[in-house]
């Protein structure tokens, strides 16, 4: 399975997201930087199987990118061989506390 990792440490807005997505996923030239276009390419133009993982998302980014997460979760339900996950960033203090227990 082809897995694409999108690191949200370097993403502050949708423009940053689409820039990183274009670097990592072979999108058609006519791709428009919007959620409808993303849904369309996933459902018909990208090579499957494909797994996308968002890593290092902050809690603030969960709210900012809520529509993006919903779009990809919907695509996961509708498109065979497409899967999606996201993971929140880890803080060193939390890791230290876990290690101490």
From TrEMBL:
Pfam families: Barstar. InterPro entries: Barstar, Barstar-like_sf. It comes from the Bacteria. Signal peptide: none annotated. Residues 1-85 form the Barstar (barnase inhibitor) domain. Belongs to the barstar family. This is Barnase inhibitor. It comes from Chryseobacterium indoltheticum.
């Amino acid at each position: 399975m082809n897995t694409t990792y999108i690191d949200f440490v370097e993403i502050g807005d949708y423009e940053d997201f689409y820039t990183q997505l274009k670097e990592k996923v072979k999108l058609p030239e006519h791709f428009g930087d919007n959620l409808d276009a993303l849904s369309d390419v996933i459902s018909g133009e990208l090579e499957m199987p494909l797994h996308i993982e968002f890593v290092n998302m902050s809690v603030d980014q969960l709210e900012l990118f809520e529509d993006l997460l919903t779009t990809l979760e919907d695509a996961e339900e509708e498109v065979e061989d497409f899967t999606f996950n996201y993971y929140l960033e880890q803080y060193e203090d939390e890791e230290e506390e876990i290690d101490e227990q």
